[in-house]
Amino acid sequence: MGDTPETAANSSSALEKLRQLIQQHDAHPDLALPTERELAERFAVGRREIRRALDVLEEEGRIWRKQGKGTYVGPAAPVQPLALQDLPQQSNLVEVMEARLQLEPGLARLAAIRASKEQIALMQRLQERMNHLSLSDGDEHELWDSAFHRAIAEAAGNRLMLGLFDAVDAVRREPAWQHLRVQARTPARLDNYDDHHHRLVKHIAARQPAEAATAMREHLLALQQALIEAINFGDEEPL
Amino acid sequence: MGDTPETAANSSSALEKLRQLIQQHDAHPDLALPTERELAERFAVGRREIRRALDVLEEEGRIWRKQGKGTYVGPAAPVQPLALQDLPQQSNLVEVMEARLQLEPGLARLAAIRASKEQIALMQRLQERMNHLSLSDGDEHELWDSAFHRAIAEAAGNRLMLGLFDAVDAVRREPAWQHLRVQARTPARLDNYDDHHHRLVKHIAARQPAEAATAMREHLLALQQALIEAINFGDEEPL
């Protein structure tokens, strides 16, 4: 095949660096980007890799090349990825709920296959504890609830996905969102959630991956619905 | 409710910091952890929040408290989350495929609802380009394929999930994995993938979220299967 596995930097990594460069250039759209030769030196990749990555950016409409003049930024700015350490500052609770709905049913599915007996016993203990918490103490609920969901993520046995779970959980944990989460937490809903947690552990312990994923999805959809109502109606009774 | 939304640090954030501290303590299991008072000062949270977080860790079996002696680490070490910037160093291709299967069908589903016409036109152009690449050039394939999948992730309109996508893509991009990916790429499979990509864009353009998610899942399952065969059989024909 045309490329060697030993290449330290390929076109894909050149593309990632160019995306960052374009982002910095956004404030100065009239300035040309460095030449291909300068870019190749700066990123320590070949000129062929630079040209290929520029092809992609041109196709995406994010740069345009002017014969004899150079390469310019625009018209379409890329949606920049969040630097992952900045997630808590730049994301929000609505994005969190969507991301949890994508991640956590899959984690529950994997946990049903991979959880050790010890890990299942831990989930059972955490779930038991949540039954006995005082209704009025939001901080304590968040704490045990987060530990419960993390026990499932850990039992799924994929460190990459545990890393993603923690990144999402860090946004959820932001104190600024807490009053909405408190508002969404009514006694009837908490009873419901206890029931969901109980079913979740039951399916994981019975090694039922599809049922565990469904139980998690239903639980998260209920949480999402409660948050939407808290956002839209505040303390009022929802219609 | 018991907690104020203004609290800068709650029990959940104390728990996260304690998990990191335990990890550092792993090399010295006989040393007691700092006292609750010291921990409260160090993490700038209340002692109540520290005690609660320690309760969780004790329930998880990760610390034990000895009357009058202090708090010790053990016996069960927590599975540490990956520091997200370390993901490419610490994860692997098998974890990547699992994570992609969790993330990307959901991204395709959201893209079918949220993609602008401009974003759909971009997907079509990228997919078109992939049809005309030389079979022998792995680097170029990776480049356009990654741009295509990222266009879908971007069109899903959730910056948190785009951040997760980029984190996973950074692992995939590691040059050390490239020879396996090259090995898995046969002419027949590439034809197949072109077909998958075509169907994906068609469903997104037709605003069919369930079909788009299914098309993405089938595409990723085929990729996963090809990688498993490359891992297990190398250049031989699979049985």
Features:
homodimer, 239 residues, mainly alpha, Four Helix Bundle (Hemerythrin (Met), subunit A), 2 domains, two-stranded antiparallel ribbon, 3% strand, elongated, disordered N terminus
Shape of chain A: elongated
What portion of the residues of chain A fall into strands of 2 or more residues? under 5%
CATH architecture classification name of the largest domain in chain A:
Up-down Bundle
As laid out across the biggest beta sheet of chain A, the strand order is: 1-2
- Domain count of chain A, please report it: 2
Low-confidence parts of chain A lasting 5 or more residues at pLDDT below 50?
A: 1-8
Radius of gyration of chain A using CA atoms only: 24 Å
Mean pLDDT of chain A: 83
Which CATH class of the largest domain in chain A?
Mainly Alpha
Elements of chain A, N to C (H/E)? HHHEEHHHHHHHH
What is the name of the CATH topology of the largest domain in chain A?
Four Helix Bundle (Hemerythrin (Met), subunit A)
General description of the model:
Two copies of one chain form a homodimer. Chain A has eleven helices and two strands; from the N terminus they run H-H-H-E-E-H-H-H-H-H-H-H-H. With 239 residues, chain A is mostly helical. The first copy, chain A, has two domains: 11-73, Orthogonal Bundle (Arc Repressor Mutant, subunit A), CATH 1.10.10; 84-233, GntR ligand-binding domain-like (Four Helix Bundle (Hemerythrin (Met), subunit A)), CATH 1.20.120.530. A two-stranded antiparallel ribbon of chain A has the order 1-2. In chain A, strand 1 and strand 2 (70-73) form a beta hairpin. In chain A, helix 6 (117-131) runs antiparallel to helix 10. Chain A is elongated, with a radius of gyration of 24 Å. Mean pLDDT of chain A is 83; it is low at 1-8. At the A-B interface, helix 1, helix 3, helix 5, helix 6 and helix 7 of A face helix 1, helix 3, helix 5, helix 6 and helix 7 of B.
